[in-house]
Amino acid sequence: MLDPGLDTFPKLALRNAQRLSRKVAIREKDLGIWQSHTWSQYVEQARLIALGLAALGFARRDKTAVVGDNRPQLYWAMLATQALGGIPVPLYQDSIEKEMQYIVGHAEVRFAVVEDQEQVDKLLHVRSQCPMLEWIVYADARGLRHYQDPCLLSLDELKERGRKFAQDNPGYFDQEVARGSAQDTAVIAYTSGTTGQPKGAMLSHRNLIETARSAIERERLTSAEEVMAYLPMAWIGDHMFSFGQSMVAGFTTNCPESAATVLADLKEIGPTYFFAPPRIWENILTSVMIRVDDTAWVKRRMVHFFLDVARRVERRRLAHRAPAPLDRLLYPLGWLLVYGPLRDNLGMGKIRVAYTAGEAIGPELFEFYRSLGINVKQLYGMTESSALICIQQDGDVKLDTVGPPLPGVEVRIGETGEVMYRSPGVFQGYYKNPEATRETLDDGWVHSGDAGFFDKDGHLKIIDRARDVGRLSGGTIFAPKYLENKLKFSPYIKEAVCVGHERAFVSALINIDLASVGNWAERRGLAYTSYTDLAQKAEVYELIRREVVRVNRSLLDEETLRGAQIRRFLLLHKELDADDQEITRTRKVRRGFVAQKYAPLIDALYGTADHVNVEAQVTYEDGRSAAHPAPRGQPDQRALRGGAGPRGGEPRDPTRGDRGHHRPQRCGQDHPAQRGQRVLPALRRPDPLRGP
Amino acid sequence: MVSGFYQPYEGQILFEGRDRTQLRPYDVAALGVARTFQNVALFKGMSVLDNIMTGRLLKMRGSFLLEALYWGPAMKQELEHRAFVERIIDFLEIQAIRKAFAGKLPYGLQKRVELARALAAEPKLLLLDEPMAGMNVEEKEDMCRFILGVNDEFGTTIALIEHDMSVVMDISDRVIALDYGRKIADGRPDEVRADQGVIDAYLGVAHA
Prior knowledge:
The complex is a heterodimer.
Chain A: H1 9-19, E1 24-30, E2 33-38, H2 39-55, E3 63-67, H3 72-83, E4 87-91, H4 97-106, E5 111-114, H5 117-129, E6 135-138, E7 152-154, H6 155-168, H7 172-179, E8 185-190, E9 200-204, H8 205-219, E10 226-228, H9 236-249, E11 252-255, H10 262-269, E12 273-276, H11 278-294, H12 297-318, H13 325-346, E13 353-356, H14 363-371, E14 376-380, E15 390-391, E16 410-413, E17 418-422, E18 429-430, H15 434-440, E19 441-442, E20 445-454, E21 460-465, E22 470-471, E23 477-478, H16 480-488, E24 493-499, E25 506-512, H17 514-523, H18 531-535, H19 538-555, E26 566-571, H20 591-597, H21 599-606, E27 612-613, E28 616-619, E29 625-628, E30 661-662, E31 665-666
Parallel strand pairs in A: 1-11, 3-4, 3-5, 5-6, 6-7, 10-11, 12-13, 13-14, 25-26
Antiparallel strand pairs in A: 1-2, 8-9, 9-18, 14-15, 16-17, 17-20, 19-20, 20-21, 22-23, 24-25, 26-31, 27-30, 28-29
Helix pairs in contact in A: 1-2, 1-3, 2-3, 2-6, 4-5, 8-9, 12-13, 12-14
Chain B: E1 14-15, E2 18-19, H1 25-31, E3 33-35, H2 48-54, H3 64-69, H4 73-91, H5 107-120, E4 125-129, H6 137-154, E5 157-161, H7 165-171, E6 175-179, E7 182-187, H8 189-194, H9 196-203
Parallel strand pairs in B: 3-4, 4-5
Antiparallel strand pairs in B: 1-2, 6-7
């Protein structure tokens, strides 16, 4: 049970302001300097914002939309809202208007606190459809000087109104905070949703605080931790780490200068507690490997040599075995020459606890960081469980599990293999969606939608989304995400979608990584104009084919999945993009949508054609969309042009560049029916897997 | 000529109501005129930050010795200038490349750094020589946004030379069209756009 004096976040914040008043609560890099705010300043700011909102007529249970990059002002606004008994609704800052409009309308948002002009513009449009939205408060006034809309207010003006309000209503803030109780909804987190409209999971103060507390105890976190707040505020993970746990434990949250500077800021802060989804771990690794590839031959050899040593040591460590005698000598040397400097350069030298979650992480990726002595652990959780269900324990880490449940969390496996859980963190239900609540929440048990099982050590093992796991027509188990993660460990592959359920073999749609393949191409003097152009080069196909072969080779070790090798693949003509709804805002592939959208390509992978012509539907950042028709003069080529980059504001000239066709590629063991036909000559080489 | 590189054969240049016809470039700069170049002219081997700091040189006072020792008033001054430069970096959204070498940046960013350096001089008049040259559509949009922002935020008067008509017509308050060095139109964008002389010169008529 919670102490009634500390059962909401505003009460916890007031305690921090008292006990840790001079301790830094939140830090932000602004104008090139880390600006610190102590806990007493944190609460003072939240107090002024709360009073300002009260002056505007904020009532208990009103909602405040919070939109922007991770900024102290926005965290203060969340606390301010909670202090008044209101409910913050954080939104993804890169959402397009339509998405925001749905949530603002559905949650009946009356107030919005946003970062800057970009978000103000979107919300002004939203407001024209959702008149419920009364006030839009902005933190950064740049570019907004000439905006006349009476619903706009700067954060400074709001605080000024708060000061005046306080003079007339002394003690208002403290009274309102005291009225809050553990059962109040603390936040409505809209899930990005791989299917349908987003659902708003309501989490109470009790849900979040109890979950935060049990994880803090398990990990022995203290007020001395430094955490980096760089993932979207709308995502429950950031809410838990940068807001929830920070309040409960009193540790410091650090906001980077901008999304583009996170890696540099990470290095300056040196967090002790760090969270990243596999995608970020992957990006960091890719950026390291690019730099390694660019160094002198000697250094490159040295890095690779010692990384191999570390990997061997780590593999044995994970198996609870001592390193081989030679490696035992080499590892300290590697620490001196490679691991130490590398950790330092990544800003990971001080990390005590780091997590990866959100998706299964590729084993190679996981091993890489652990082999550098970075305590990366796997974690399992979801919005509906207040972010946390299972965490691996220090010293008991495995590559393919998510660890045992946290104290207070019960997990069982349903009859269909679905993971179900019950805990103090289980959400109150979906806001205004009793039907979805009934489907998910069953007598306190939540259906996770994930397929998994417990291993002999009591670790939970998640295989895939329950509905994604399938079987090849031959009966072999086909776990697409498992294969995709193996592919994505290659620095050249950014995204992959595997297909194979009820098919004769597995094939893959692949996105190359523009940065690293571009770099690779440049070093070979290979000219290209855009992603599309690069992805269709025969040399690039050959490069990726080698990566696919590597993955297939690694599958040979796995009894159950050996039959699920990737036989054919193609490189997509555009990058999968959240604006085109191919991936979610948290960058999870929407498998069903992709399969449907690229059906002709997938058919081609299982057919005999070696070219397919496509027309691309491109959605721009502002939500408009356009189809790119055939280039003039080539009426028979229904070729795609456009979407040259993930953020392209304008389609590329349709008459420029090459034609958008695809070349399905074969690899892995040959499929007898297709051997030697209709593929590029380069691919008819003897297959490395077949041996002599 | 306005920036003082060339001297006019005849006529006058007035700046803030006074004759500035015979000034040298450094005098012009001291008066509050800054410029960017058509072909980027940055110090390639210096960081972006240092490049922009050079824009502050005219504002710096103090002795060589104090500067070298980074002591007393010199330190205070350096910090003030750095703070101003950081505001510009924030304004132009180039935080991520603060410490990168200017010569290694893509062209669009180099142009932005050049603009930053010009802004660092706190000019009253900013001369931009083809700020959009060689940029893609997205970079052009960004640059337009920044130019309008400079005018709005710092109250700087901006004179720019540009061939991209849509850009010129979109962002200008007043447009002057030249044809072989001769002024053929001067007025609001819509007036200039409708001017027959301009249409002839820019869309072309047969030169008899």
